[in-house]
């Protein structure tokens, strides 16, 4: 099983609908992230959470909200989806550099959730 | 704030030829640098990273990168590519003082032709 699991993997919805993308991880990491990938733009950070009570906006948070239900779960919501939110969304986890010999600040990614808003 | 620029959006190359994917970053403070690869329909996986020490970093699948502080670059190289190297490659940077946020470049698509 994957260490970082995203559901759904593919979703087609209509403008104005509420959508939730879910992410769960078994890596035991405190930090979780949501990124959006668009062709030619790379990955852009939407929200990030350093622990259950610490949630921060990234560079493109408008139109999105998140919920950190537990250390292992981090959900991204689109309250009222619009067509320019059509993209590939990635969840990722990391552990703070220096916390342990295995922690390097490296991100571990899920396989992505492809969202199409019509 | 730090930023990353990947200078080529697409790099076509023939199999067994060498390749260089270019990455420049902008930051006034110390950074850590990463290269990630994304194969079709998959998530991103780490190729290599520079944290400190030797400026020549070796990664998986025969890739290496050289950190050049004076030119603020972290170019990725492979001496001989394979068809299986066809993928999108992302350069990323984070502050060494706070590794919580990774900033990505726009990506470079490597197309290896037979």
Task: Describe it.
- The complex is a heterodimer of chains A (118) and B (114).
- By secondary structure, chain A is mostly beta strands.
- Chain A has no helices and 11 strands.
- In chain A, the strands form 2 sheets. In chain A, strands 2, 4, 5, 6, 9, 10 and 11 form a 7-stranded mixed β-sheet that branches. A 4-stranded antiparallel β-sheet of chain A has the order 1-3-8-7, with no helix packed on it.
- Chain B has no helices and 12 strands.
- In chain B, 36% of the residues are buried.
- Chain B is mainly β.
- The model of chain B has no long low-confidence stretch (mean pLDDT 91).
- Chains A and B meet through strand 4, strand 5 and strand 9 of A and strand 5, strand 6 and strand 11 of B.
Following the backbone from N to C, one meets helices and strands of chain B in this order, namely: EEEEEEEEEEEE
Q: What's the overall average pLDDT of chain B, rounded?
A: 91
Which consecutive residue ranges of chain A, at least 5 long each, have pLDDT under 50?
none
Report the uncertain regions of chain B.
none
End-to-end span of chain B in angstroms? 41 Å
The helix-and-strand class of chain B reads mainly beta
Distance from N terminus to C terminus of chain A (CA atoms, Å) equals 32 Å
Residue share in helix of chain A? under 10%
Cα shape of chain A: globular
Hey, which two chains have the biggest interface?
A: A-B, 26 and 25 residues
The biggest beta sheet of chain A reads: 7 strands, mixed
Work out the number of β strands of chain A: 11
How much of the residues of chain B is beta strand, in percent? over 45%
| Backbone structural class of chain A | mainly beta
Provide tags for this entry.
heterodimer, A: mainly beta, four-stranded antiparallel beta sheet, 11 strands, B: 114 residues, mainly beta, 12 strands, 0% helix
Nutshell version of this structure?
The complex is a heterodimer of chains A (118) and B (114). Chain A is an all-beta fold. Helices cover 0% and strands 54% of the residues of chain A.
């Amino acid at each position: 099983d994957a260490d970082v699991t995203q559901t759904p993997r593919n979703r087609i919805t209509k403008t104005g609908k509420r959508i939730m993308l879910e992410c769960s991880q078994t890596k035991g990491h405190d930090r979780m992230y949501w990124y959006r990938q668009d062709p030619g733009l790379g990955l852009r950070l939407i929200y990030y959470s350093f622990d259950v009570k610490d949630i921060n906006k990234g560079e493109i948070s408008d139109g999105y909200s998140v919920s950190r239900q537990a250390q292992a779960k981090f959900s991204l919501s689109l309250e009222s989806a619009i067509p320019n939110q059509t993209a590939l969304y990635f969840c990722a986890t990391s552990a703070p550099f220096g916390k342990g010999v295995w922690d390097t600040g490296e991100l571990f990614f899920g396989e992505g959730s492809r969202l199409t808003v019509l | 704030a730090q930023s990353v620029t990947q200078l080529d959006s697409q790099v076509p190359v023939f199999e067994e030829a060498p390749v260089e994917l270019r990455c420049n970053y902008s930051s006034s403070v110390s950074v850590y640098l990463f290269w990630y690869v994304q194969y079709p329909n998959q998530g991103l996986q780490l190729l290599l990273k520079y944290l400190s020490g030797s400026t020549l970093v070796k990664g998986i699948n025969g890739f290496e990168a050289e950190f050049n502080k004076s030119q603020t670059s972290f170019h990725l190289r492979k001496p001989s590519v394979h068809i299986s190297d066809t993928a999108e490659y992302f350069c990323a940077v984070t502050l060494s003082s706070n590794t919580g946020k990774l900033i990505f470049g726009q990506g470079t698509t490597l197309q290896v032709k037979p």
